[in-house]
Amino acid sequence: MQGHSDVPLNADGVVQAQRIGSRLSTHPSPPQVIYSSNLSRAIQTAEEIAKPLGIEVRTTPKLRETMLGEWEGLTRTEIIARGDGVLLNEYITDSYKSRPPGGESLDAVWDRMLKEFTQIRQDHPDSSIAIVGHGGSLRSIICHTLDAEVTSMRRIWLDNASLSVLEYSESETTSHSRILLLNDTSHLSNA
Questions:
Q1: Where are the beta strands (DSSP E) in the chain?
Q2: Band (178; pLDDT cuts 50, 70, 90)
């Protein structure tokens, strides 16, 4: 369980970050702006995306992964050994209702992420934006795009270094959002 723990990318993660960077540099609509969680694993990935594009990464703690409280840094075996086996099973079954001791609620993650996402979109209304974050927190943006409830977050899986493309358009009279690509990892083949 990593959560807010600041764990750098391992060798496989670096290769994956380089591959997503290469893919986005040749994308038909490459990012003009890149935002990242301020955790090193996200920053390293964002920097690999930024390199071929020649743009700077903007970091913020608001894009961090869900904070997992007392379970941060522990393995499943260690969580069970500390006496939290039943809670861990409940968490796996329904992570909305069952949270790690001292962990952030999914409602709090939802609020934090959507406030930051809204601000980023307001600051760059006509730009293609890359947001490099974490599976747990980025799912809130995906659910928001689908007009899904916060409880839907636990029904979406995002792989490390996957690509999801969301489209938002607004005018004075209409607005729409849609998902063009979700959890695509084709660039990671043989990674």
A1: 33-37, 57-60, 129-132, 163-170, 175-184
A2: very high
